[in-house]
Design goal:
- There is one protein chain.
- The chain is mainly alpha-helical.
- 68% of the residues lie in helices and 2% in strands.
- It contains 13 helices and 2 strands; from the N terminus they run H-H-H-H-H-H-H-H-H-H-E-H-H-E-H.
- The protein has a two-stranded parallel sheet.
- Helix 2 crosses helix 7.
- It is globular, with a radius of gyration of 19 Å.
- The mean pLDDT is 90.
Length: 254
Amino acid sequence: MITVSSYLPKIKTWYEQNISAEMREHCKRVGKTAKTYAESLDLDPDVAKVAGFAHDCAKELEPTRLVNLARENNLPLIPLDYFKITAFLHAKVGEVIARGQFGIEDADVLASIRCHTFGEPRMSKIAMVVFVADDTEPARKEKYAEPVRKVLAEEGLEKAVLKALNIKLQQAIENGCFIHPSMIETRNYFVRTLSSVSMGTVTMDEELLTKMTNGNFVETLNNRLKSAVKEGQATDPLLAEVRNYALRIKFTVK
């Protein structure tokens, strides 16, 4: 009988050949953290541990190899993926590695690897556990991890996922990073499903357009996105898309 834990030797061998010692330690911590969370939530701790341990199996592959594996396996790519290949592709390619190199067929493990960066609407409980564990394992900065741990303990798993997404979005804004549409899609899903009263959706309205034409594009969009996080609102994906475009111009045009 094949158990989820039986995948661990193949994962460890792959890690020894393809992943740095530092990354291996991170993956071990995520696996242990995911197992602890799963136990407290009456979920399968072994599945959570393996999923957490395997989640970054493609994180340190060369960018060209990530792109080639994505293309060979017909993974959906968008232009933005080519601007931050490792950050944006390693999770989806990780699922490919898990199937092909480790022989993993468990749907929860595969989904956990695939969506640990941006999440997915209607993600499984185990996938949520790994998503949260990745952001809260013991070596993560307390200023980001502790608020998510607090929400997990007091308000539950789904709200902890939303808290983690809010923090990721705020970090991207503050650090001038691109915002992937998959993260916006996931955040919108959790905002809408967890709120008993609709707070509306922040859109590219006339007021925003006026401010954008009279000032800094990126700053105006950043402020509107920050407001959406603060007010618990969903956001029109177009806002992040226009902001990403403005950032690309900023980086390429001197």
